[in-house]
Structures are given as structure tokens and as C-alpha cells.
UniProtKB/TrEMBL annotation:
A GO term for molecular function: nuclease activity
Protein's name in the database: Putative pre-16S rRNA nuclease
GO term, biological process aspect, one: rRNA 5'-end processing
Pfam families xrefs: RuvX
Protein task: Could be a nuclease involved in processing of the 5'-end of pre-16S rRNA.
Keyword Hydrolase: yes
EC number: 3.1.-.-
Domain of life: Bacteria
Keywords on record: Cytoplasm, Hydrolase, Nuclease, Ribosome biogenesis
UniProt subcellular location: Cytoplasm
Class in the EC hierarchy, top level: hydrolase
Residue span(s) of domain YqgF/RNase H-like: 1-103
Length: 139
């Protein structure tokens, strides 16, 4: 079983994938998108995921600290709907509050330069989203 984790932003989508047993998440790539032009990187995602049989997607849902859903959360829901229609597999929305900050902390602790952090932060956030889901045992 392969599960894909996504951290969806306005300019990039971080992509992570689980091992076949669903124990660990590994970062794959960061895909450039342009949300304003409705260029969501789905063709690039098709190519990236071609070698895998994807059974499920986990999309980070950025909630406000009080638990409400704002514009970014609505955008993630929209992206999840597109994935469900395109891939015909379940899509789970996963609370990602503070995930990007946690990814930043991991990269800082690893002494990754600011320039390199910017290139991998979304992929790392996707790993943390997916690993959180895998660790929950809710699949």
C-alpha cells in the first residue's frame, strides 16, 4: 500500500510517499505550481507517481489555530477534490497546523543553509504530514 502526502501551497506542492508497508514517509519532490492560473502541477504529479500504485492521498489541511478553516484550507480542499476525481482513490485531509514550522526546525537543526531550506521546506512538510498520518494508524 502506497500513500502519498502533499503539502499544497500557492506556488509549490511538496510530495512525499510511504514505503509499501505504510510505516515511513520519504520526500520525493517539490512541484512548482501557479494557483492563480489554475496550474496545479497534476501532470507533473502523474509523471512523478507513475512508478507507484497509489492507494490514497493525504493532503495537509491548514487550519487556523482556533480550528477554523480559512482561505488556504479551502484551497487545500479544492485540491483534494481534484485529486479524488483524477486518481479515483481516497483523499484524506490532515490537520497540518505548525507543520511548516516543524519542517523549518528540522532543517535548521540539520544546519541546512537558508537557500537550500527554501528548496526543500515543502517536501519536508509533506513528509511530516504523511508521517503524522501514518503514525496515527488511521488508515
Amino acid at each position: 500500500m502506497r500513500i502519498v502526502g502533499l503539502d499544497v501551497g500557492t506556488k509549490t506542492v511538496g510530495v512525499a510517499i510511504s514505503d509499501e508497508m505504510g510505516w515511513t514517509a520519504q520526500g520525493l519532490e517539490t512541484i512548482a505550481i501557479d494557483e492563480e492560473k489554475n496550474q496545479l502541477g497534476l501532470k507533473q504529479l502523474d509523471v512523478l507517481l507513475k512508478p507507484y500504485k497509489v492507494d490514497k492521498f493525504v493532503v495537509g489541511l491548514p487550519k487556523n489555530m482556533n480550528g477554523t478553516i480559512g482561505p488556504r484550507g479551502e484551497a487545500s480542499k479544492h485540491y483534494a477534490e481534484k485529486l479524488e476525481k483524477r486518481y479515483k482513490v481516497p483523499v484524506v485531509l490532515w490537520d497540518e497546523r505548525l507543520t511548516t514550522m516543524a519542517a523549518e526546525r528540522v532543517l535548521l537543526d540539520a544546519d541546512v543553509s537558508r537557500k537550500k531550506r527554501k528548496k526543500v521546506i515543502d517536501k519536508m512538510a509533506a513528509v511530516l504530514i504523511l508521517q503524522g498520518y501514518l503514525d496515527s494508524g488511521k488508515f
